[in-house]
Amino acid sequence: MNQTAVAEKEKRPVPRAGEGPGGTGRHTLGTRLNRWGWAFALLSIVLISIFVFAPMVGALVMSFQTGKGVNAHFGGLTNYARLFSDRTVATALSNTLIYLVVQVPIMLILALILSVILNDRNLKGRTFFRVAIFLPCITSLVSYSLIMKNIFSNDGIFNQMLIHTGLPPILWTTDAFWARILIIIAITWRWTGYNMIFYLSGMQGIEPSIYEAAEIDGANAVTKFTRITVPLLKPVILFTTITSTIGTLQLFDEVQNITQGGPANGTVTISQYIYNLCFKYTPNFGYACAVAFIVVVLILLLSMVQMKVGGKENQ
Amino acid sequence: MKGKRIAAAFLSLVMAAGLAACGGGGAGSSAGSQAAPNSQAASSSAGSTAKKLTIWAWDDTFNVKAANEAKAAYAKIDPDVSVNVVSMAQNDIVAKLNTAFESGNVDGMPNIVLIEDYRIQNYLKSYPDALSDLSDVTKPEKFMAYKLKTMTQDGKVYGVPFDSGVACVFYRTDLIQKAGYKDADMQDLTWDKFIEIGKAVKAKTGKAMLSVDPSDLGLIRMMMQSAGKWYVDASGKADIAGNAALKEALTIYKKMQTEGITVTASGWDAGVAAVNGAKVATAVNGCWYASSIKKASDQSGKWAVASFPKMTNVANSVNATNCGGASWYVIDKVPGKDTAKDFLSKTFASDTALLDSLCKDISLVSTYQDAVSGQNVGAPDAFFSNQPIYKNWIEWTKKIPAVNYGTSTYDIESKMTEAVQSIVKGASVDDTLKNTQTEVEGILSAAG
């Protein structure tokens, strides 16, 4: 029954674009489709202009204003000049760069290794491990930060364990060095699984026969990883690098909740400094906007560098 | 085909409309939810049946409790007004005030809000019309002068003073005794003596004298004010590099850390935990800290109160200073202003019975002159070794040197925390303060 139905369906002539009675020629249809395409796109263009581009221009205008509240007035480049003498900007930038340079490579390499392990068809319980490693990234940023803060507080579980094993406790939240390490541990725990999923799905797209051929040629696991997996995953790696970089440059929730930028601005990030300027201190939105434009410039520069390094031929 | 295409166009139009409606609906509903408290307030301005007031405060053991008692007291005066007291972290209140005042949109803001004295100058200067003039509610002769000074602008009083932030040393009598000192040794301390006792406490009991938070310089602020100095001078100009009181405070702060009599605690909760968990022998803080100390009811009778230590190397330093303290303000554009004013004038601005019971319930040291003679004020407090603590606090409050807090205390403090950390790690005090002076001048000039 079923088979005959399918067969009958296949026999029926299928009208194609341009061939049907309604088709009046390629050119007209093309422009008409084009017009419709623009109509669809218009909606998102209008929305993004109102909700994204307009505030951006507003922020740029605001970044030239100095003074607070009713005293705000056009101040030219005063805010941008102040950026260079403000050491907290320098501290926040260097903290952000430390997170970026240390944390992103650790996380991505870890994610890559984990995904290779979990891509092994012979591994037992790999679904369980995949879920377990991915699970952190569905937890809310605030709640996981608070749990991390609790575990690593000066008399938290982690230090209790250290004391019981006879080791000196680590001042995770009151020593700037360890506070930074804590932030790195926290974001690595949260985001490694997220990046691993991209690599795993990327690996599904690699033809198994390539690996078989490599095995016949005598390639070992390391060679297969460096010569086949990594090059073929290059676009995915580039993507995760860019998103992780942007994510790190905008790092806020973890620092705000675990250390509040402390001790003494030891872990403060650019985003958090912008927040503080607006909502914690005497509000100075003009200067905060000027600081925000540093992030724009940084993300632009870093993404350009990564595109260059990642190479265009792979896209 | 043509029919199909028209149908498709129609469908997509419907979808687009749906999308737009979704977006619009979302915005509308969120505005609706924001406006909810406001619409309650709006009905109160109508003044007919259901009048509603919203109050924001931040400490559940202290000022929130006070607001709730005021609410109960006011219910007897005007039962038609329903008062909603909202407890919210102080940081969140500040963030919301900043946003509302900057945008000029007070939707969702409360009628009455508690603002810390360190911050009020900024609001009064940056947003002159945001808060209501309460000159007819707050009678200047009824309140303590140092408190009124912070909320007066161009001869108008904008707030109702609430608590005194008079600072003191809370100390554990048992631990001090174990270290070989008596209560008499704790009276009218100098910081040198404080450190000496701290070393003995550390040696004999193994406990720290004091917990410090690297991100909170309350201790240094208190020391500075005990000598009548602040991060800014009387005219609001940066006073960092040449500030002898600040320099001496930093030296003492560093010495306490190098002598090993402190323990670091990150954040408010960790500080309270150190006190309640019997990890420290003293807490040097504003008198409002008593309500947090009392949370450890098992330590009742083991605590006592002594006046704030003075700095021997600074000429004007006295055994009295201030830490924090806040006052009530009315947000002018939120409907229900008159009800809010009436509420404040009949509670915090005049009700001595209320203030007296607050003295007992939350250890409030009021800055209302007549509250000084309340019957609970002279009463001994069992938790604090039966000391008449309120009487002491009021005595010390009178000696607090008045300073100009300026507009940017917390911006400056953020810079100072970095300076303090580098000084503790060994950097030269003079050079560090010179750099900080430049940065603070930048902050203040930007404040315009």
Keywords for this entry:
heterodimer; A: 315 residues; mainly alpha; MetI-like fold; 14 helices; 71% helix; 1% strand; flat; disordered N terminus; B: 448 residues; alpha/beta; D-Maltodextrin-Binding Protein, domain 2; 2 domains; 5-stranded mixed beta sheet; 3-stranded antiparallel beta sheet; 12 strands; 49% helix; 12% strand
Question: Would you give an account of this structure?
Answer:
Chain A has one domain: MetI-like (MetI-like fold). With 315 residues, chain A is mainly α. In chain A, 30% of the residues are buried. Chain A is 71% helix and 1% strand. A two-stranded antiparallel ribbon of chain A has the order 1-2. By secondary structure, chain B is an alpha/beta fold. Chain B folds into two domains: 40-162 and 324-373, Periplasmic binding protein-like II (D-Maltodextrin-Binding Protein, domain 2); 167-323 and 382-447, Periplasmic binding protein-like II (D-Maltodextrin-Binding Protein, domain 2). Helices cover 49% and strands 12% of the residues of chain B. Chain B has 17 helices and twelve strands. Chain B has helices at 2-46, 63-77, 90-103, 117-126, 145-150, 173-178, 183-186, 191-205, 218-226, 244-258, 268-276, 290-293, 337-346, 352-362, 389-398, 409-424, 429-447, and strands spanning 51-57, 81-87, 112-116, 152-153, 156-157, 159-161, 167-172, 210-212, 262-264, 282-286, 303-307, 326-330. In chain B, the strands form four sheets. A five-stranded mixed beta sheet of chain B has the order 2-1-3-12-6. Chain B has a three-stranded antiparallel beta sheet with strand order 10-7-11, sandwiched between helices. Chain B has a two-stranded antiparallel ribbon with strand order 4-5. In chain B, strand 1, helix 2 and strand 2 form a beta-alpha-beta unit. In chain B, helix 9 crosses helix 10 (244-258) and helix 16 runs antiparallel to helix 17. Chain B is globular. Residues 17-49 of chain B have low confidence and may be disordered. Chains A and B meet through helix 2, helix 3, helix 4 and helix 13 of A and helix 1, helix 3, helix 4, helix 16 and helix 17 of B.
